[in-house]
Amino acid sequence: NAIKFEKIKESKYPMWQIKEHLLNNAHLGVVLNRANEVAIEGFVQDRYGFFDMTSNILKAYKKFEDVKPNSLEDIFKIDKEVEEFCKKEF
Q1: What would the pLDDT profile of 39-81 be if each residue is shown by its tens digit?
Q2: Distance in angstroms (rounded) separating the CA atoms of residues 59 and 14
Q3: Which terminus of the chain is more exposed, N or C, with fewer CB under 10 A?
Q4: Residues 6 or more apart from 37 whose CB is under 8 A from it?
């Protein structure tokens, strides 16, 4: 059986749309990570469906895309703000 590799379609994999931005702004990993954790938690608790997780994560990522942590304290603060936003919005 032959394996066929196809070009990734953003319409099918919406997270792909932020890849370049995230690669160029690695500090935003804290936002993506926390939003992902809250999204998984919400899915496990049946607050929304599996396919809603991506849109929720992207909503949080876009909300916090301008944050610039300069210290460990900033990272913890951003982490908490993202968590609060996600729990309120998701």
Answers
A1: 999 999 999 999 999 999 999 999 999 999 999 999 999 999 9
A2: 11
A3: N
A4: 83
